Amino acid sequence: MTKGIMILQDWWFTTLMGIKEPIRPPLRGDIKTDVLIVGAGAAGLAAALRLVGSGKKVVMLDKNICGGSSTGKSAGFLTPDSELELSQLLRKYGKNGAKDLWEVAARGVDIMVDNIKKHKIECDLQVQDCLFLGKGDSGRKDVEDEVNARKKLGYSSTMYKESEVPSVIGSKAYSGAIRYTGTYGVNPLLYAQGIKQVLLENGIEIFESSEVLSWKDKTARTHLGSVTADKMIFCIDKPKPEVTKFSTTVYHAQTFLSISEPLGDKDVSDLFPQGPLQCWDSDLIYTYFRLTGAKRLLVGGGDMMTTYAKNDTTVPRVIDKVISELKEKIPIIRPLRFIQYWQGRIDMTRDLIPTVLVDPDHPWAHFVLGCVGLPWATFCGDFAARNVLDDKEVDNEKYYRYFSPSRKFFLPLWLEQLLGKRIVFTVNNAWAKYRQKDAGKDGAVLDAMVG
Ligand SMILES: Cc1cc2nc3c(=O)[nH]c(=O)nc-3n(C[C@H](O)[C@H](O)[C@H](O)COP(=O)(O)OP(=O)(O)OC[C@H]3O[C@@H](n4cnc5c(N)ncnc54)[C@H](O)[C@@H]3O)c2cc1C
């Protein structure tokens, strides 16, 4: 097995070389606007795009560059499937609730892909079906559950029995698989930077390296300036208590990624006999992989010890192990060398559903927090902006209930004082994913969830 030395660097940053304007100057001085958007990840960018052409003056601030945090570190899987699979949503929310939430993420995928096509954004958009791979007996059951959930909700899919899996992936190590369409791969940092250009061309003012350190009434302050706005939409990650008291609703899970040297054509067809797919397996801390347009293999995963760690883990140990285990399962990739790795802590909530709210004490301020997945973030940013525009076509009541900060969780927040944040989060998270049940009446969990 060839083992090279990898460097710690987000591959997507490498692909920014040569783009028109990778960095905008920071905000200097005091300005006024109609709408201020803080945070330019998938959520903030979707909010800003929604406001284009609305007649509102819009300013956007990011402490890094557009897409510089989770969005630009992500693996770029564009799928409605995130941390919660459809069968889990079905168990948790019943048929109507599961459909509502699946469609949230599916709508997020559509918004992103429509915008990429409409604005001709060069971000390596790949049409890539999903392949969820079962491992062992429990994984076989997970695949069957997923197939049944999709049938129940009227979504099509193709199931592969153990003996059929090698027809789609060059491995005999999986016990079953389910495949479905309507999903894509994307270079998420080029996507963010492409949307940035569209926004700039449409008159939106963007300042990077401009962290909002505090805000009072309608004025937000950065280290060199301030913005006074009628409305504010905060789409930030790792929120600090001085920026919002709802920072307590946000937790993190760490995941690791690595990119390989390009594969040859023969290796690609051996790896994906029916064409490239985006794959992940049925493990609790799952391994995921897909091919980029340049035929590099992107592999991601983690381990139990570091997923809920408080600080970033920067050594290659975790991803090295993920790659070695994947190589055991897929012989074709054994000689493949991986050249860069990076990690990121994904913001999430205790039940993996985002928190979106209008601040009751400051009704001009919206918050979009803890979105797990680019499509969820995109939907929620767009949703918040539509609310600012007073768009009557959106079912506000429904979504604000799903995304309410006061929904109930298995273990309450105060237990963190006794048990610590990590333990309470892990238990709540596992409960939401594996145990929480709709109480029989469709949507009953939702009714019981909001206090
Ligand atoms: C390694 C990794 C792999 C992933 N893979 C996938 C995947 O394949 N598919 C998928 O759908 N999802 C994936 N995700 C999850 C996905 O990236 C996130 O859920 C999504 O990007 C969240 O978008 P966001 O806009 O809510 O947050 P972010 O992208 O984190 O954006 C928030 C922005 O706010 C800015 N900010 C924060 N505080 C301030 C402040 N005070 N002032 C100004 N700006 C501020 C930050 O700089 C940042 O740009 C992955 C995440 C990671 C880390």
What is the CATH level 1 assignment of the domain at 24-73 and 189-250 and 351-449? Answer: Alpha Beta
- As a percent range, the share of strand residues is 15-25%
Strand sequence of the main sheet, in spatial order? Answer: 1-18-14-17-16-15-6-8-7
Morphology call: globular
The ligands found in this model are:
flavin-adenine dinucleotide
Determine the CATH topology of the domain at 24-73 and 189-250 and 351-449.
FAD/NAD(P)-binding domain
Report the radius of gyration as a whole number of Å.
21 Å
Distance between the termini: 55 Å
Structural class: alpha/beta
The CATH homologous superfamily of the domain at 24-73 and 189-250 and 351-449 is named FAD/NAD(P)-binding domain
Q: Please report the number of helical segments.
A: 14
How many β strands by DSSP?
20
Give the overall pLDDT as a whole number.
Answer: 92
- As a percent range, the share of helical residues equals 25-40%
